[in-house]
TrEMBL record:
Keyword annotations: Acyltransferase, Amino-acid biosynthesis, Arginine biosynthesis, Autocatalytic cleavage, Cytoplasm, Multifunctional enzyme, Transferase
Organism for this UniProt entry: Desulforamulus reducens (strain ATCC BAA-1160 / DSM 100696 / MI-1) (Desulfotomaculum reducens)
Protein name: Arginine biosynthesis bifunctional protein ArgJ
Gene Ontology MF terms: L-glutamate N-acetyltransferase activity; L-glutamate N-acetyltransferase activity, acting on acetyl-L-ornithine as donor
Compartments in which it is found: Cytoplasm
Pfam families the record matches: ArgJ
Role noted for this protein: Catalyzes two activities which are involved in the cyclic version of arginine biosynthesis: the synthesis of N-acetylglutamate from glutamate and acetyl-CoA as the acetyl donor, and of ornithine by transacetylation between N(2)-acetylornithine and glutamate.
Family recorded in the similarity comment: Belongs to the ArgJ family.
NCBIfam families linked to this entry: ArgJ, PRK05388.1
């Protein structure tokens, strides 16, 4: 059977039918920068979500988790500049007030509004600034507003992150678009990030949840910048059904097609987060094959991508393959080091767990590329996985040494 094509299109969270977005400056960031975003569906939508595994969870995340469990949503309100995390008894009322103000401005049920926050932890959220700014955010909603919304959710991000695709379900074209923020405190499970995805597909919330979980496992849970996982991380998907496709059923051909489109969006956004790692100059892509299981392949690839020693070596353009083998060894993956082959780009630097002669100048050229590609064959099975990270530079310390101030 011929595989259905995934068409990449311009846009983000407003690419799908019936979705609008907008943003304003509420005064949470300095210099009157955009810091409050709204995403709105013209009709109620099925919703699904995946969240941080950190035991310390921010109030907006807890509220959104409750709302998503209801299966229906219509809007997301997001602020940057303050995480509303570790703020004690003030946290949940502030998150609920954000949702309430959005619901009033949009004239929708309060329980249909999800909330997300990002920024400094442990500082009370000045929710009165948000409430005052919400009507302006609602007035700014448009199909073109995806760009402003993308900018509004950024913190230390250097670039906005959005992506959209189209797939065919039955005789209908289904669009899937998303936006994300993330640059530091990035590590599975999940990375410190916010991601919002919209689609006009007809799909029930439980089926959407299954599709999202699988897509996140192979994308956002396969990136790492610095080994830290935060308190506010979430991926939320809204599906409003305006594509009018046949309802997508679990494990059907249409489901597989939808999952491929959703995974394409998730992987693209995940890679853009890793590439934009704080102070980073190059993306690192680590592909592991020949593993005994998918879990072993994921453990191995994530361990290499997350090794601070190897990340520093990539920054210094040093083909120090011993750091790769070392990271594989403490990854928890099941493999035989004496069988392992390692390549940097197309240069074989180790075979059967030992040194081989290689051209240092050619290896240097591979380490200058973006992305820097690492290929590992464990020769212990048939499973594979790919993880993404970035190099570790002086600027990472500079940025995080003064993040709060």
């Amino acid at each position: 059977m011929k595989e259905k094509a995934i068409n990449i299109i311009k846009g983000g969270v407003t690419s799908a039918k019936g979705f609008l977005a907008g943003a304003v400056a509420a005064g949470l960031k300095k210099n009157d920068l955009l810091d409050l975003a709204l995403i709105y569906s013209e009709v109620p939508a099925s919703v699904a979500g995946v969240y941080t595994t950190n035991r310390v969870k921010a109030a907006p995340l807890e509220l959104t988790k409750q709302r998503v469990s209801g299966g229906i949503g219509q809007a997301v309100i997001i602020n940057a500049g303050n995480a509303n995390a570790c703020t004690g008894e003030q946290g949940m009322p502030a998150a609920m007030e954000m949702a309430r103000s959005a619901a009033v401005a949009l004239d929708i049920p309060e329980e249909y509004v999800m909330v997300a926050s990002t920024g400094v932890i442990g500082v009370p959220l000045p929710v009165e600034k948000i409430v005052k700014a919400v009507p302006g955010a609602a007035s700014s909603l448009s199909k073109e507003g995806h760009d402003l919304a993308c900018q509004a959710i950024m913190t230390t991000d250097l670039v906005p992150k959005e992506y959209a695709v189209q797939v065919q379900i039955g005789e209908k074209v289904v669009t899937i678009g998303g936006m994300a923020k993330g640059s530091g405190m990035i590590h599975p499970n999940m990375a410190t990030m916010l991601c919002f995805i919209t689609t006009d597909a007809v799909i029930a919330s439980d089926v959407l949840q299954g599709a999202l979980k699988g897509s996140v496992d192979d994308s956002f849970n396969m990136i790492t910048v610095d080994g830290d996982t935060s308190t506010n991380d979430m991926v939320v998907v809204l599906a409003n059904g305006l594509a009018d496709n046949p309802a997508i059923q679990m494990d059907s051909e249409d489901y597989q097609t939808f999952c491929k489109g959703l995974s394409e969006v998730c992987r693209a956004l995940a890679k853009s987060i890793a590439r934009d790692g704080e102070g980073a100059t190059r993306l690192i892509e680590v592909q592991v094959i020949g593993a005994p299981s998918v879990q072993d392949a994921r453990l191995a690839s994530r361990s290499v991508a997350g090794s601070n020693l190897f990340k520093a070596a990539v920054f210094g353009k040093d083909a120090n393959w011993g750091r790769i083998l070392c990271a594989l060894g403490y990854s928890g993956a099941n493999f035989d080091p004496a069988l392992t082959d390692i390549l940097i780009g197309d240069v074989a630097v180790a075979k059967d767990g030992g040194a081989v002669h290689f051209d240092e100048e050619q290896a240097l050229k591979m380490l200058e590329q973006d992305p820097v590609k690492v290929f590992v064959d464990l020769k212990s099975g048939t499973h594979a996985a790919t993880a993404w990270g970035c190099d570790l530079t002086y600027d990472y310390v500079r940025i995080n040494g003064s993040y709060r101030t």
